[in-house]
Amino acid sequence: MFRRFTGGKELTRAGVARFATSFITLKRFQELKQPLRELFASKDWAESTFASTSEGKLVENIVLGDVNFWKAIKYCLSGVVSFFKVLRLMDGDAKPAMGYIYEAMDRAKG
User: Fold this and answer.
1) If DSSP codes are grouped into helix, strand and coil, which group holds residue 97?
2) Helix, strand, or coil here: 53?
């Protein structure tokens, strides 16, 4: 059911650095916010066995009704996106000149 509402997308991807997995999952939550809301508002969800469980109700309430959940994701990501851009620049196959790295770090500091 999840894949149908998200166009076949997953929340996590294999092969990503362990330290970044949490942030990548949060980014994916942000990207799939609308499909997730549609999923939990759907008839399919209401008829599923998970919808009647305490865990299912908790997740549904978070996705549909907890504005702070979505704000917290946005806030968390705002602090790490620039940092990940610098890491990608430094971790790429082509090693950039030091000037580019310093510039990227300055931009990341905001």
Assistant:
1) coil
2) coil
What's the pTM? 0.69
The answer to whether the CB of 57 falls within 8 A of the CB of 65 is: no
- In the block, tokens 């939550």 appear at 29
| Full pLDDT tens readout for the chain, 110 residues | 878 887 887 777 665 566 677 888 898 999 999 999 999 999 999 999 999 999 999 999 999 999 999 999 999 988 787 777 777 777 777 777 777 777 877 777 76
Q: Distance between CA 76 and CA 70 in Å, rounded? A: 10
* CA separation for the pair 21, 83 (Å, rounded): 14
Q: Tokens standing for 108?
A: 């990341």
